[in-house]
């Protein structure tokens, strides 16, 4: 079965805490082609840790302009007192379909009032919000940098306070998705840290697979491993696999 | 591609313990391309220090699975070394002595270098069966008294060169664990557990050679196609993939 993928969780730039190399856009696109990934949302690791990631966001957007299939996913750090200005600039660019929030790496908390205000503004502009709940298994992190995953309860409270928003939450474990799904159905999830025997079959019991998308977590994870989770699921139908691989994400971004 | 899974927990916290469920599980594994699996006991069902009676329950389940599996399953005997020499020897004689179970599984009852490991290692040597030792990087945690870091498992393997050792969990061992495992001919590292982190399989093959890495999933905690994908999706040769997914385990387990 030939399945085309749209990758919602791909990164370029340098991750300083593991020997992953410095991935640029051409490298990522070659990697995608090898794995039948026709496009995706791309964020910059260089922007992830910065209080003001403006320069890296701008560079990312410029580098993806006119590159078919590559959608920039700039990062907004709400610790930056000028985050509203940064967001306004991002919203003025039509190529920005979504904005990534990564509280664990930006140093802010979901209870921060700005988390609600920023999400409301992004939603009001007709764009999407992507929330990074986890990027690295916390057991494997550098001991000097203990980034805790965003808690499902905090995500649920945040979603509840932003009417009309349907964010994509990335990096939740099986137990965290189940906890979040009990509180709300107003979210999409990827499978980057969701794993159990027949991941898709287990996920389908708590989240409609129409709200599930593919994310490779390149360069952190083995891409084929995550693709297998979808293409070789023993319980999902062919239509469901195709939708999770690409259709759901593309529809959500329209 | 033929696959042998050296690290599965067919019964997990009591689930799948009924024979009908076991048969169903075996059918599913065969359908996914597996030609043989190692079944490890439900080691944490009673906590990290199961008593003698609890250990017997867990190991009886393994014996049952091996019988149902009819050659498809190699069962390992779970041990709590802290129960002492008499209990350890009795359980190994009961389960392994008759040839039903063909390996020993150690979780987190004690560190791999605990003095009580002596009885386990002597039993493994006497019966000529391999040991699978749960191993995970505990660099900034504190349970090393009972939890084995890669260096602990590697030191155990060096101390007992006639005992075959499987150091479990490549992702949990990480680069640190791979480097610690260099030059230990009686030990292999299994690829089970954790997220499919990029670069680790390649690094293990580069540092240890493709003969010393074996495929394992940690099923059902992990998704089988995902676990296989971390090997098939790695930048190593086709020959190395075949060795990791099948040949090395077949040789190590003497199938």
Write the layout of secondary structure elements.
The complex is a heterodimer of chains A (254) and B (255).
Chain A: E1 5-14, E2 22-23, H1 25-34, E3 37-44, H2 45-48, H3 54-64, E4 70-72, E5 75-76, H4 83-91, E6 98-101, H5 103-106, H6 113-124, E7 128-132, H7 152-160, E8 168-170, H8 174-183, E9 188-190, H9 199-204, E10 212-213, H10 223-231, H11 238-253
Parallel strand pairs in A: 1-3, 3-4, 5-6, 6-7, 7-8, 8-9, 9-10
Antiparallel strand pairs in A: 1-2
Helix pairs in contact in A: 7-8
Chain B: E1 3-8, H1 19-31, E2 34-39, H2 52-69, E3 73-78, H3 85-95, E4 101-106, H4 117-127, E5 131-133, H5 150-159, E6 165-167, H6 170-180, E7 187-190, H7 200-208, E8 213-214, H8 224-232, H9 238-252
Parallel strand pairs in B: 1-2, 2-3, 3-4, 4-5, 5-6, 6-7, 7-8
Identify the most extensive interface between protein chains: A-B, 30 and 33 residues
Instruction: Quickly give the structural class of chain B.
Output: alpha/beta
C-alpha-based Rg of chain B, rounded: 17 Å
Strand order of the largest sheet of chain B: 1-2-3-4-5-6-7-8
* CATH overall fold name of chain A: TIM Barrel
Low-confidence regions of chain A = none
Average pLDDT level of chain B: 95
Shape of chain B: globular
With strands numbered from the N-terminus, the spatial order across the biggest sheet of chain A is 5-6-7-8-9-10
> Approximately how much helix is present in the residues of chain A?
25-40%
Number of H- or I-type helical stretches of chain A: 11
What is the N-to-C order of secondary-structure elements of chain B (H for helix, E for strand)?
EHEHEHEHEHEHEHEHH
Rg of chain A over CA atoms, rounded to whole Å, is 17 Å
Q: What is the top-level CATH class of chain A?
A: Alpha Beta
Report the major sheet of chain B.
8 strands, parallel
- Oligomeric state, counting identical vs distinct chains: heterodimer
Report, as a whole number of angstroms, the end-to-end distance of chain A: 26 Å
Query: Helix amount of chain B, in percent?
Result: 40-55%
